[in-house]
Every structure is written in C-alpha cells, then in structure tokens.
Automatic annotation (TrEMBL), chain A:
GO cellular component, one term: AP-3 adaptor complex
Protein name: AP-3 complex subunit beta
Domain of life of the source: Eukaryota
Skewed-composition ranges (Basic and acidic residues): 712-726
GO biological process terms held by the UniProt record: protein transport
Region (Disordered): 710-880
InterPro entries reported for this sequence: AP3_beta, AP3B1/2_C, AP3B_C, AP_beta, ARM-like, ARM-type_fold, Clathrin/coatomer_adapt-like_N, Clathrin_app_Ig-like_sf
TrEMBL record, chain B:
Domain of life: Eukaryota
Protein localization: Cytoplasmic vesicle membrane; Golgi apparatus
An example Gene Ontology biological process: intracellular protein transport
Organism encoding this protein: Coilia grayii
Matching PANTHER family: AP COMPLEX SUBUNIT MU
Protein's recorded name: MHD domain-containing protein
Amino acid sequence: MNPMQKLLQLPVGAVNMVKSVQSQVQGQANEEAKSPVLTPDGGQQTWYSAVQPDELRHLRADRESGEEKGFLEEGVGTVQSQPLRHDDLKEMLDSNKDSLKLEAMKRIVAMIARGKNASELFPAVVKNVACKNIEVKKLVYVYLVRYAEEQQDLALLSISTFQRGLKDPNQLIRASALRVLSSIRVTIIVPIMMLAIKEAASDMSPYVRKTAAHAIPKLYSLDPDQKDQLIEVIEKLLADKTTLVAGSVVMAFEEVCPERIDLIHKNYRKLCNLLIDVEEWGQVVIINMLTRYARTQFLNPNINESLLEEGCEKAFYGSDDEDESKEESADAEVSTVAKRKPYVMDPDHRLLLRNTKPLLQSRNAAVVMAVAQLYFHLAPKAEVGVIAKALVRLMRSHSEVQYVVLQNVATMTIKRRGMFEPYLKSFYIRSTDPTQIKVLKLEVLTNLANETNISTILREFQTYIKSMDKDFVAATIQAIGRCATNIGEVRDTCLNGLVQLLSNRDELVVAESVVVIKKLLQMQPEQHSEIIKHMAKLTDNIQVPMARASILWLIGEYCEHVPKIAPDVLRKMAKTFTNEEDIVKLQIINLAAKLYLTNSKQTKLLTQYVLNLAKYDQNYDIRDRARFIRQLIVPMDKGGALSKYAKKLFLALKPAPVLESPFKDRDHFQLGSLSHLLNAKAGAYQELPDWPEVAPDPSVRNVEVPEWTKCSSRDKRKDKKVEKPFYSDSEGESGPTESADSGSDSQSDSESRSGSSEGSGSGSESEDSEEDEASDSEGLEEAPKGRKIVKSKMKTSASDSAASDESGGEERNVRPKPKHGKRSESEEEEEEESESESSESESESEQESESETDVKRKKKVSTASAPSKQTKKTNVEKKETVEKKEMSLLDLDDFLSTPVESTTPQVTPVNSVLSNSLVTDLEGLSLTDSMMSAVNITSSNSVKMYELLHRIKGEGLAVEYCFSRQPFSLDMHMIAVQIHFTNNTSSEVKNLHVEEPKLQSGMRMKEFQEIDVLPPSATVTAVMGIDFCDSTQAANFQLCTHTRKFFVSIQPPVGELMMPVFMTENEFKKEQGKLMGMNEISEKLVLGEMCRNDLAIVQRVTSAANIGRVPCGSDKECRFAGKTVTSGSLVLVTVLTKEGGATQLTVNCEKMVIGTMLVKDILQALSQ
Amino acid sequence: MIHSLFLVNSSGDIFLEKHWKSVVSRSVCDYFFEAQERATEPENVPPVIPTPHHYLINVLRHKIFFVAVIQTEVPPLFVIEFLHRVVDTFQDYFGVCTEAAIKDNVVVVYELLEEMLDNGFPLATESNILKELIKPPTILRTVVNTITGSTNVGEQLPTGQLSVVPWRRTGVKYTNNEAYFDVVEEIDAIIDKSGSTITAEIQGVIDACVKLTGMPDLTLSFMNPRLLDDVSFHPCVRFKRWEAERILSFIPPDGNFRLLSYHVSSQNLVAIPVYVKHNITFREGSSQGRFELTLGPKQTMGKAVESVLVTSQLPRGVLNVNLNPSQGTYTFDPVTKLLSWDVGKINPQKLPSLKGSMSLQTGASKPDENPTFNIQFKIQQLAISGLKVNRLDMYGEKYKPFKGIKYMTKAGKFQVRT
C-alpha cells in the first residue's frame, strides 16, 4: 500500500477507500448491499472533508432517503433524470447477476448518449470496474472515461484494476488497460500514467506500443509539464520499425513536439519506406509531417527547373516508374539559371516523392489529398501533374469531399493551370449539384479559362445563366466578368452577352450584370457610350441598390460620353433621393458633384438641391459627404483652397479594378489543411516553412545500419573505383575539387554518386579511360581552350541506359569533361515531340565560369580555331522557338567553319505525277529489299517530314522521317517509315543503327540495316517497318552511332495507320451499312472557297490519311476507303458537299478511337 | 483531433453525442444550426463551420448530420472521410443508417465509436476487425442475449489487428466457399439541347462478396486492363503487381468490400445507351405549356434498358401538369415542382413517351429556363466500357471455390439539358 500511497499522493483516508473498494470488489458477491462509501468508519470522515460539496451529495445520496435525494437534485437544475429510476439502476448494478448489471449499464450508456447527466451513478458504476463480464467491463470503461474528470477522487478507485491490467500476460488486455488509464483525465495520476507509458513503450507487443503512442498526447494535454519526458518516449517510439506504431507515434509527435524536426532525421528513410504499409489514417499524418520536414531539409526543386538531375538517384533506387518521366514537362527559364548553382535533387527528396506516389491510388480521400499537397509543395513543377487525375477522381465522392477538394483545386489552378486543363469537362456543373459546389466549380472553370478554351467555357456559362438557382447565376455573371478581364479577346463578346442580360426578367441577374459591366467598362469606356446610355435607362426599373449605385457611378465617371443623358438622370434621382438606399444616395451626391464640375450650367441648381437634401439626411455619412463636397466644389468667398483642385480630385483617372480569384494567395497555407480551407490560421497550425537557401547537411539522415536494399550496389561501386569524382560537386559544393576523393565525402554524397554510377551502368569501356584522363588532366582545365560544355538536358526515363556513353573522339581530345554532362547530353533528341513533357535538367561544372551554348557547333569550331571567348552565355535548352532563333545565330558560325551545310535534310525529288496508289503498286512490284526501296522510292508531294533528331541535339546528325505510304515489303502489317539521315558534322558518323526499342505491348519493329558510314554532309535514307498495332502510341527506341545513343520516338498520325483498299461503290455502301451507330462519326463543316472542287477535297483527304478514293456516281460526294494496317479494320470516309460549301464528313470505322481521331485530322485538313 | 461527435436529425434534434476528450457542451451545435438556417437546402450547409473556439465539420448522410467538433488544425478531409467511414460501418452493422436504427442500437453504436477512435485519432476502422470486437446485432442474437444474458462483445479479442493482414479476420470457416464480384459501371453524362454529348465518362467499381475459408490469396485479371485509366484500390490490393502486370492480387477481407474503383480512360468514346426527345414550350401570355418527352434506346449492345426513371425540376411558374404516359406512372409535386416519371423498361418497338400540357400561373411571364432531365437506368449483364474479367485464381487454400462475376451498367449523374 505504501508505494501506492506515495504515487497517488492521496490523503490517508482516500487510500483506505481504495483499499476498501479493492476488498469490496474482490469479495463483492455476498456484500453487494454494502457500498464501500457507506462504510461508517473514521476514514470516511476524512474522505468526506476532502471532496467537493456536490460530490458529497452523490455519496450521501446513496444512503439518504429517496425524498431527500429528490430534494437535493432539485437544487441542481441540470439533473433531469428521475430519482426513482436511478434507484433501480443502482440496485441492478449492485446485484450479482451479470445480466442485470449489463442491462443497467446499457441503460446508463443510452443516457450518456442522449446527453443526459448520469454522473450521480458514479459510485455504483465504478465498483463494477473489475467485473468479469467483458461487456459490462467495456461499458463501465465507457462510463469512466466520460465522467472520471468530474469525479476525480472516486475515479481513483478504479486505478488499481488498470494497474493490474498493465501487467497482464495478454497483450490486448495490457493495451486496453493502458488505453482507459490514459483516457481518464485525472491530474493526480499523471505519474502513474507516465510510468505506464514508459513501460508500454518498450513492450514486446507492437500493439501495446501503439497504444502507448496514443497515450502520449493524452498525457500531454493533461499535464504539459511532462513534455520533456514524453519527447524521450516519442524518440524511442519513432525508432520503432513496425508499421503499426509509425502512424500513431507521428501523430503524437505532431501534437507534442512538432518543432523538434531533428527527431525525424534518423527515421526519415524508414518512415518513407514503411509508408505504404501504414494504415490509412497514419499515412495522412505522416505525409503531412514529412511535407514540413522536406521543406526544411531539401532545396527547392523549382529554383531552376531546367537543372534537374534526376537520373542519377532514380537509377540508384532502382526505380521502376517510367510514367513519372512522361509527366515531366520542359519548362525553361534557363538564361537566368546559368549563373546559379546547378540543382541536384537530394536522393532522400526523391525517395519521398517516389514512395508517396502510389498512395494517390488510395481509396481514402484524405490520403490522396495528403499526397497531392505533398507533390504540390515539394515536387518539381514538371511532376506535379500526376496528382490532377487523382484529385479529379475524388470529385466523384461525397459532396463534402468534393467541397474540400474543389477548394484545393481552385488554389492549385491559379498556380498551375496547365495541370487541370485536360480535365476541364470534369468541372462542368450539373443542375443537381449543391450551390456551394456549383460556385466552386465555377471558380475552377474561371481559373482554367484561357484563349483556347474560352469559347467552350463561355458556351457552358450561357447554359448556367438560365439556371433556376439565382445565387449560382449571379456567380456565373461574375465569372464571365473575370474571364472578360483576363482574356482580352473575348472582352467584347462577354460585354455584349452581359448587356443582353440587362433585359433579363430576374432583377438579381440584371443587378449582378450591371455591377460586372461597370467593372468591365472601366477598362475601356470610350468605346461603349451606347452601353452606358442603355444602362442609364435602366435606372427607372432596377431597384437593387448595388446596381443603381453602379449605374450612377458609371454615368458620373463617364459623363462626358453621355453629356445629354447625365443631367437628366440626376434630375430623376434628385426626385427620388429621399427614398433611396444609403449607397445610392452617396452615389447621387457623387454624380451631382461630377456633373457640377463638368457641366455646371445645367446642373448647378440640381446639385445644390441634392446637397441640401443630403444635408438633412438621417445618415451621418451622407451628411458628412454632402458637407465635404459642397466645400470642395462650390466656390466660396473664403477658403476654397481645394476647390481649384476639385476637378483633379473627382475626375482623376481611376485604375480599372482587377477581378481576382478569392483563392489567390491562399497557397501559403499548406494545401489540404483546415487553415487553407478557412483561409485563416487554425489553432496549432504549423506553418509550412520556406525552402532553405542552402540544404542542411544530408548526412544527418544516415543510419548506422542502412536497411535499404541498395547498399550493396554502393559498396560495389566503391570497390570498382571512385568513378565519378565530379559528380558529388554538382550537389552544391563549390570549387574545382572534383578529384577522386569521394570516399571521404559524406555518406549521402557517395550515395548520390553511386546512384550516378548505377545510372551509367551501361557505360562503355571508353568511359573508364576517359575517367582516367579526367583525373590526370585536371591541370589542363583552366587552359583557355575551346572548352567542352557541360550542359544538358535529360529525360529521366532515359537516364539509366542512355546515361552511358559519350560523344565523339574529338571531344576527348579537347578536354575530358565532367561525367554527368556527357551522360546527359546523349538524350537531347526527344525535344521536339515532348517539349512540354521532358524535364530538362542542366548542370555545369562548377569551376567553369563561362558556360557555352551549343555543344556540337562548339566542337566543330573549337577544333579549328575558336577561342573560348566565342562562347555565349546562352542556353540551348529553350522552347523550340527560341532554339530556332539561336540556331540561325549559330549558323553564322557554321558558315565560318563549314561553308555549306543545309539544315534540312534533303528530300529526294518527288514524282508527283503518279497517283498514290499507282506508286504503291509499282513499289510492290519492284522492291525486294528495304534498303533499296529507301534509295529508290520517294514520297508523293503530300508527304510530310517529321523531325526525329534535331541536328543540334544530335551533335550534327540530323534525322527526319516520313511515312512513305508504301507497303513494307518484309511484313505486310508494318508501316514503312522512311528515315533520312544527314550528317552535318565534319567527321564521319559510323555504325548508325537502332537499339533497344521500347514498344507498347503488341507493337513490333523491323529495324533498318545498319549504316556503316555516313560521310560528312552526306544524306542517306533508310526504311524501317513498325507495326503500331493501330494505335497512335509512339514507338521509342535508341538511335546509335559509333559514339552516341539518342533516344528517339516515332509517333504516327492516325491517317498513316491505314492503307488504301479498292472497292466499288456498292461494296462501299454495303460495308458502310454494317458500320452504323457507334461506329459512325460525322461532323459538319463549311469548306473554304479554295477547296470546293473535287480535286482539292481528294487531295486534302488523301494527304491527311492514307486511303484510296472509291469511284462514285455523284459529284457531290467523295468516298474513300482504307483499312488499318495491323488489324485490317475498314475505314470508310464520305465527304458530302452541299450548297455553299456546307459539307458533311462521315467516317465509319470499327475502331471508334481511330474513327474519332481521323475525323479530327480530316476536318483540320479540309478546313485549312 | 476529433473531440466530439453529435448526431443531428432532420428536425434539428441532437439525438446522440459522444466525446473522446473533455466534454464539449452541446450548445456548440447552435453555430451549426445557424449555418443550417442560412443554407436554403440541407446539402448547402458548409461542411466546415468555424466557431470562436471550435471548428465543426459535418457530413450529411441518410438525412442525419454527423457533426464532429475539433479544436485544432486537422486536414478537413481526414475528418470527413472518417465520418463517412462511421456511417458505412453503421450501415454495415444495422443494414440501414437511420435515426431509429441508431437509437435502437445505441449501445452497439457507442461501443463502435469507442473502438473506432482513441483520443480522437482513428484506431480500428476495418469492418473485419470491428466485427470481431463487437458482433453485429442479429435477431437471433438479440433473442439469445436477452435469454441467456450473453453479450454481443467478442469473447475473444481480435487477432487481425496484430497480423500482417490487418483487414482480414483469422479462422474464417465456410461450408460453401464462394467469391462473387460485381462489376458496376456508371455513366456520367451531360447531354445538351440538341442531343449531342457535352461530357461523358464512365466510372466503375468492383464490389466483392468473398466468403472463403482460411487465408486465400486471389488474383483477378482482366481481358483489357488498358481500359482502366485511373484506379483506386482497397488496401488489400498489391500495388506493385498491378503496376507491373495489371493484375489484381490480394488477400481479401472476409465478406463484402469494394475491391476497386476505376475511371475508364477518356480516350474511349462513351456509348450513350438512351436518347431523349423533348419538346417543352411555354407560350408568352398563355397559361398553358406543352410538354412532350420520348425516350429511346441507343447503343445498348443489344441489352434491355431497365428501371428507367426520369426526374425533372420544373420551373417555378408551373402550377400543375396534366400528362399522359404511354407506359409507367408519373408524379408531380406542385409544391417542390418535382416531376418524376417511373418508366420501367424501354421497349424498342414502342418507345415510351410522356405527353400533355402544363398549366402555368396566369399573368406570370413565361419562364426563361427550361428544365433539366435527370435519367436513371440500369442495363444488366453489360459493362458499357467493355471491361471483361479474364479469370480469377485462388492460391493458398486447397478447396475449389465457387466464383461468380456479374456485370451491370447504370446511369450515374446523367443529365439532359433542354
């Protein structure tokens, strides 16, 4: 008893009480009539004196007569229950039958649930805490947790039971004992709770440890002084390796010590790796915490988007997600970047991004949102796009979920509009949506509006305006106003639309329109005096004060545009002045003042009349205003110093209002948080920290025994050699220290480097030799020679294999350049088709102060004569247009060194005389070998060339391709692709061949024969066959020379996936009959003057698609037939012309996707 | 996190309260009632209501508001999602989640809430685990309990929470081992006046009812997994396998659960199974309006369109309607102006139509808006996207289970604008 006494620090009497209850509980069976509190011994007296009076009442009530109890209860107003019923509850609780006890407890719990006060039953209930019946016990727990706080001293009676439970061999009993013990909020047992938690934190069972983690915040809220001790427990539990504990302990961390970010370091990688297996609620908490953590520990990946070196660590972690890279988009802000340090993503940062991404697939909306906000706040711009799809999916969920998601999407669309643009239609509004959802969707649609989609959006808005939900209509009108201000092209259209709304029957609609028109007119008032006149007329009808005020303001502001009407309006207003609302009155005074200044002859008296009326107005604002204005405008004998400036004051040019989204600037709150939703800081909100300028030491996250998988590869790498000495430096250490001393670097550095070595795993022999050179020739670096630039762009997906080898030998002679630069260089060719998709990354060697422009050009020039001064501080990695411009600049250089070089590959002359099909036939006869065909055949004039590899990226090798439309002789299911290689360098390119095709399933490829030698400024053509499986998926492969590999891809337009078939008109009609319904797609269009004749139509259609004409009787109709190359599905096209160029285009195709795409393409071709 | 929970019925009574931390007075709900008053429709009550000391986050399900009280920053979706999970659990336990059901089972509800949250933080939300902790009430058990005084609290404590498969209870035994999968697809579409599709997409779910002995490990593969554009899984599905092979591999929970929800890739055209011809005119000055509506099947892949129900909110100016349905029955509520026509099955030979006149308020001007039609329908044995389950295999157990797959297409949010 003694230790217990100390622990509880209870008065002696209380301990006696505890004791008596214990004995009571144990020997309860035959003593049920005798309640422990009734024992009339001395100890009890001390006890009584210790408790509060109202508790005293309950204690005594037990033995007082029923009447007295009733009296007592009347004294306490809140007690609603009848005393009688409580008596039988007590009896039941005191009985020795479990079923009676259970029944009583159920009734008590029902009382609690209804919010009735059952506190006076406490003594009777607490006795049953040790009851054997598990359900009774549970219900007693429920009761205890609810009332213990109010009856602290009595609650102590139950403690010993829980203490016994904590020692139970069954883990679940231990856990539940701890759970209840920590839930009864009685300050006096804090030490006991502390002990129990500490003990449970090192329990064998993870479940008990989880409960301990849950108990931590409970204790903390009870007694914040325990913080330090609790942090120790948290630290211990954070190191726990089971998923069961992770979520709960992070939750405890967030509640107790969110500022102790240092506790996370050692557990960071473990948490990332466990994340996917943690239960969903824990995931949310962990992800939110890690978002904050990452903001303090890593560098902003968007600091210069073009410098992403992702390939290295991706390879290191053995990443398998390729699609990630597809999402990446190029976005260049490069020129500013050149001076900065290259950004390299910390491998831990990448680890977090990669391990959270699968959770976008969670069924739990909160988890999806948590990942989405993590990506939004942490991912490189290019990768954020992946979250859009998942968020759009959440829009299918309950309306509350929609509400929250839309709020967040609204914020995101302001920052990253492009991300949600493809999902525009998912935000269309249905009449059944609740108004709050409609308004939010409207917000998103408005944010998404741009020049290209504005017409669709406005058409949608037109439907909304007819809605019955007037609040929503008002919001729509405002949205139109915002679109009009943001997008200049549609301003007039919007304005006209809004003016039409002025004649709407609903006054709210009109009023809202007036307000919005006012804002729009302010932008360009000169052109719209008609509208102002129209609005002036509305003053007779519109009653909504805000709208009236707006009209008056407009007339006043632009009174010189409506010189005749304005005074008249003022006259009318003066008549009704006394009946107007306050804001209208203010505007009448305003109007009067402005008119007085511009047209005092007509309005002098009116103005004075209005001012006199205002002088006696009830509203002091109006009186003040009137006085103020009179002083200003009416010339007085004395004073009036301001009156000469009155014109300036009143008729100053006012800047047009900026109609902004209410969601602007909300993104400083962490998305998905309550604070973001409310746009106000909620209690205990943890600010999302800004990115650090310099990344803190990443080695703090290193763990003694790395438990992750790749450590072996790292070791291997070290054994192999310190291969890439340069690499580590690109992370942020400055100075030309890329020596071979990486071994002494911090561990994580070596990790990233090892990642890089993995990345170049396919590196060839030459690399190693270069390596040696690199370290040898360090001294040479500073020599003012034509220096090799280390600037590159890389596509992440490409990284691991493409990272490997290096460019031509000439470079090697110039200077062995840093490894990573070379690696990434090899991948530039993707640009033209994935301009927006490929993430660009760039790096340059630290010590090279000057950066250079173009790799290939430079190479050429430098070997000849160029000194390093020629280098420009510009970057190739720009948007295409920019690049083009630069190209022309560079061409000048070209002319200096290599006089004749055409940029476009030669297309062999064209025999346009032959019709397409004839060529095909001839080809079929003559060709036996693909190589031959390549040389002999030329395409018809409609053949379009596509760029496969730009000469800059190809380091002088330019490759283009076209679809020659000849059958591929080796395999009839393949499409022949004619490829033109042009060598723009001054040296030979050898061994041109294809490697490692990466094809979608089902796709096949027949490579062209290796081209042994391509002499300088020569052009060679080759033909390869690709079976695209009737899809427009790109075929990706590597184009290899003897020195380099380039990632390229060929994507066919849909029209090239087919070949002509011959059929008669009857056959055509028969086949068409079979392909009705879903398989038929038709579109209407109006043909331009240019192509109203047969010939033009045929030419345009056949240029868009490889199909043949079907003979036809009518001259109003052109028919074409073809079949897809792989599956042979028929494709039938009909162009039916009518009077005045109206035309109907019909496509029948079994494959609906192909049909739709084809319609689009042909439409485009015809309407050009 | 979550401090307290109040359940409020449609007439504004708080009929249940539960506190996980200190007691929060129920007067905090006054702020909620205020917001409720401001919102004209119950669904327009903002899900998050700030009050001086607390934040109220509420969801509306089955005409009951579940109002959670929180005090500090917490992701709102976390709370909303949890509240929905609570409702789902109630529904799972009692069949329905109504005020009466909750009141009848108040003790079970309380026990559930106690288990689901600890100190406001979710603890056990998997239905398999909860069912081991607290047996769902059945008629038989209620009778037995009252006679013998035994309990609906599990005698044995659950092991699932401690195992590697936290969603499945152990020791499952069935005499008939069976696994049923329902592929249900919903078409969400907006059709404009002229009948052309403004937006249409297919959302699908696969609901499973798996009653298999032991610890079966299932794999489900599709003929055409590429159709699935965006998916979300039950936690039991192994994500890696899906990524690599497009195969669903999982150890199922016992009983009913939603295995997968998916979105069909937007490249695919959506077949619209019904079309609507409508002619609704109001004449200026006249107190009569004409109403004509015809439904017909379109792109149904040869299957019958069943359980068709058309609802529409008519303009306020419409006093009454006098219509003639060629089949089915219609109702019109003159107060809410809600027209609903229960069509039944569409017979392609004799298209169902609803024709007649509307009487309008005399003197009132003609309504400038036309009603929108919401259409519901069902098509059995068809997944409109063409998704097909290839095969279902079971590993880890020896017996041969009975397997069944059912397809169904339904209208989701299917609207026709006029």
